[in-house]
Write a structure and sequence with these properties.
single chain, mainly alpha, about 90 residues
Length: about 90
């Protein structure tokens, strides 16, 4: 494959994380009063009622996965960040 650029799993995760953070800034700007991270900190998965709640929980899970050193594969993290991205795009803000 000449001219093809190899992208490492680590690079993919970094790019998805950047993208997720940009989308979450947009979501936070549309929320009044509480940031998505504050919302997630005060919520349990069993009390998810809205798309915003689901987005907050998925972001919290992605953040926890990223903070856990070596606890998750890049595929697991990529899957979770893609969920955050997908939900944030689908959420009517």
């Amino acid at each position: 494959m000449t001219g093809a650029k190899c992208v490492s799993d680590n690079d993919k995760v970094k790019l998805l994380l950047q993208n997720a953070r940009q989308l979450l800034k947009i979501v936070d700007a549309s929320l009044s009063g509480t940031s998505l991270e504050e919302r997630a900190a005060n919520m349990e998965r069993s009390h998810v009622n809205t798309d915003m709640d689901r987005l907050a929980c998925d972001w919290k899970q992605a953040s926890n996965m990223l903070e856990a050193e070596g606890g998750h594969t890049s595929d697991e993290i990529t899957t979770q960040l893609n969920r955050v991205r997908l939900i944030s795009v689908q959420t009517d803000i």
